[in-house]
Amino acid sequence: MAKANNALRTSPPENLPHAKPHAAPVPDLDRLIHERVRLGIVSALAANEFLTFNDLKRLLEITDGNLSVHARKLEDAGYVSCTKSFEGRMPRTEYRLSDSGRKALEKYLDHMEALIRAMRK
Length: 121
Prior knowledge:
121 residues, alpha+beta, Arc Repressor Mutant, subunit A, 5 helices
């Protein structure tokens, strides 16, 4: 698998000679947030103080395993924090969006808004 190029791109790739050069450099998307499930997790947490594992599972309509994998990637990146506890004998996992996660989401949304504006020109 090729490594992602995080550099700014100011001209079309060689394999797309018909593409127009960008007027301004376009940064690559944050691939960690761009994935559908992870974007859903981060967006849901941005709108709530915290959500439980079951809240996110119901909201995103995904399986336990799928949520676990994606939440772990966000946690490893420092975008979300995870707190595990018990309510009686039932385990309870809560997720919160970290400051760096909120900043990453804001940067991602700014980038998407810039792309939308550029496409409407």
